[in-house]
Amino acid sequence: MEHVTASEELSATLMYHVERPVFNEGYIDSELLHRKKRTPKPFQRRIAEHLRCSSEKAKSVVFGFLPILTWLPSYPLKQYLFGDIVSGISTGVMQLPQGLAYAMLAAVPPVFGLYSSFYPVLLYTFFGTSKHISIGTFAVISLMIGGVAVREAPDSMFAVNGTNASQVVDFEARDARRVEVVVALTTLVGIIQFVLGLLRFGFLAIYLTEPLVRGFTTAAAVHVSVSQIKYLLGVHTARFNGPLSVVYSLDAVFRNIASTNVVTLIIGLVCTVFLYFIKDLNERFKKKLPIPIPGEIIVVIVSTGISYGMVMSENYGVEVVGNIPTGLLPPKIPDFSVFPNLFPDAFAIAVVGFSIAISLAKTFALKHGYSVDGNQELIALGLCNFVSSFFHTFAVTASMSRSLVQESTGGHTEIAGLLASLLVLLVVVAIGFVFQPLPTTVLAAIIMVNLLGMFRQMKDIPALWRTSKIELAIWLVSFFASVLLGLDYGLVVAMGFAILTVIYRTQCPKNALLGQIPDTGLYFDVDEYEEAEECSGIKIFQSNTSIYFANSDLYVSALKAKTGIDPAQLLVARKSQLKYAKRDNGERKAVNHCSPVKKNAVVLLDVELGVTREVVPGVKKQKDHVYTNGQMTENHAESESEDDFFLQRLTPIHTIVLDFTPVNFIDSVGAKTIKSVIKEFATVDVKVVLAGCSRTLLSDLRTLKFFCEPVTPDLIFPTIHDAVLHCKHSRDVPVCPDVQ
C-alpha cells in the first residue's frame, strides 16, 4: 500500500516543462531536422537480392509453405497426444453426420460430403497455420455451392422423354452433372484462393467487416432453414435459386403442404427436439463434461437402425439417403469448359470461405497465444480445395461448431484434425453402406439445430443500436440483401454498402472549434468543454477527416460555417460599406455647409449572422479604442476619416489555424482547395496557417507543389500552440491571459 501511495505522489509531482522558440516548418526543415543520407539501391541490384537463393532463405520458404515442419519435430507426445486423440474422435464423430447433411445443401449425393470431410482435412494438417479450426463442410458455403449447381444443372434439363420435369426427372443424370459442376467450381475456388495467397492478399478479409459477415451468415441460416423445410415435412418441391428464392421456396412448400409425410415429420421433429436438448446440455455442463455428448451421431445411428428395421422407405414412403458406394473414387480431371460461367460465384465463395476460416483462426490464436498467417491460410485453403477437387469434393472452410468442439475437448494441434479425417476415411472405406437407410429428415434436423448459433447473431441488433448505428446499418443491409437477393448478389450489395459507409464517415466528420485549456498547451472542443477558451482574434478549426476530392468542398463549407467567416460575403459587405460611406460622406459634406453638427454613419457588422446597416446620429468622439482585425487601434478624428474606420472593421478575426492532426492523407484536389482557402481568406485580411501536419503529410504536400507563393513552409507549425503563439505575437496585440 505504501508503494502505491509513493507512486501516486511521484505521479502528482511530475512536471512537463519545455522552453523553446516557436517553430515553423521552414525553420524545422532547414535548421532543426536533417535527413539521413541514403544511397538508393539500383533496381537491378534489388531484383538480384530478391531472387538470390540461400540456405536460410530456402529453409524459410519451405517452413513457411509447410508449417507442419515447424511444430511436428518438437511435438510433445505426453502432453498433447491424449488430448488430440480425444478431440479428433469427438470432431470426427460430429463431422460424419454433418458431411452427409451439408452434401444435401450442396445439391450432390451425401457420399460426396464424406469425401469433402476427408481429403481437405488431411491436406490442411500439412499446410494450415491454425491449431484449432476444423476444416470441412460448412452450411453457408454448401448452400452457395448448391445454388450454383441448381442453376447450371436444373431439373428441367433432365426431363425424361420431354415430359414435365417436375413429374419425371432423370435423377441419376442430374446428380452426375451437378457433381461435375460442383467439382469444377471447387477447382476454381482453390485456384483463386491459392493465387490470392501467393499475391499476399491475406488482408482481403478485412473488407468483410464483422457486422457484414454476421449479417450475411444469419441470412444464410435463413436460406438453409427454408431449404430444409421440405425434407422435414417430406414434400417434394423444386429447388429455387436467385433473388426471392426464399419466398418462392416457402410458397412451394405451403402449396404442397397437404402432401406432408406424417412419419417423416414425426421423425424430424423428434430428432430436432432431441438434438436441441443435447446441445443445451452440452452448453450448460460443458465445464463438467469431459467431452460433449455426441448427439448427432447418436441420432444418426438410432434413426438408421429404426429405418432399416421398419423398412421405412418402402412401408411409409420415408425418403432415405440411398446408395453410398464403399471405398474412394479414383481421381478425375474437372470439366474446365464450365469455368467461364462459374468465375463470379467461385470468387465470392473463395472470399467468404477464407473470411470465415481466418476469423475463427484468429479468434483461437488470440485465445491460446499463437499467431496465424493470413496469406498462408489462403494458400492452405486453396490447396485443400484445388487438390481435393480431383477426388470429387466440394469447397470447404472452417466450421464454427466443430472448431469449438475440437478446441473444448482438448485439441492442441492439427493432429486432432488429422485423426478426425482418418475416422471419416474408415467409415467411407469400411462401413459407409450402413448409412444408406438413414432418413433425410434426420439430416435436415441436424442442419437446422446447428443453425441455432447463427440465429443467435440476431442479438447483435440491439447491441449495435447502442454502440454504432453505422455498423447496425451494415448488418441489416447485409442480412436483408442476402435474404431477398440471394447470397451472391447480397454479398456484393453488402460489400458495396460497407464501402459507402467509409465514404460517408469522411463526408460527415465531426467539426469543431478548439480552445485552450488555461496554463497548458492543450486545445479541446469549446462546445464540449467549459474549460476550453478561445483566444481573441484566432479561430482554431479541426475536422476529423482526411482531405481529398470527395470531401474538399465540404471541408471548406464546414470551415466557413464554424468560424462564421465567409470571405465572399465580407467582400460584398465591403462594397456595400464603401457605397454607403461615400453617400454618407457626401451628405455630411452638404450638412457641414449648413450646420456645425455632424452625423456619424455607423455600420454594424454581425459576422455570424450576416451584415446589417444602421445610421446613428451623434457627436463624434475624439478618441475611441477599437479592435480592427483583432488589433487594438485608436480612432482619431483628426487623422482618420470614418469611412476608413468602417472599411477596416470587416471581422474581428485575424487568423485561422487549421488543425491537421487528424489528417492522414491529402490528394491534389485537397491541396488545391487548402491553397485556395488561404488565398481567399487573405483577401479579407485573415491569415490561415496549418498546424499538426505529420511528416508523411508534409512530404505529400511538397510532392503536390503546395509550397509556392503565397503559401510557404513558414505557414506550417508543428503544434497548435506554436501557431497560436506565433499569430498572437506577430500581430503585436495583447496576448490572451491563457497563452504563455
TrEMBL record:
Protein localization: Membrane
STAS domain sequence ranges: 528-727
Keyword Transcription tagged: no
InterPro entries linked to this entry: S04_transporter_CS, SLC26A/SulP_dom, SLC26A/SulP_fam, STAS_dom, STAS_dom_sf
UniProt superkingdom: Eukaryota
Keywords (A to Z) from UniProt: Membrane, Transmembrane, Transmembrane helix
GO (cellular component) term, any one: membrane
Gene Ontology MF terms in the entry: secondary active sulfate transmembrane transporter activity
One Pfam family this sequence matches: STAS
Membrane-related topology note: Multi-pass membrane protein
Main location: membrane
TM region positions: 100-127, 133-150, 181-208, 257-277, 289-311, 346-366, 378-398, 418-451, 472-504
PANTHER family: SULFATE TRANSPORTER (PTHR11814)
Protein's recorded name: Solute carrier family 26 member 5
Source organism of this protein record: Cyprinus carpio
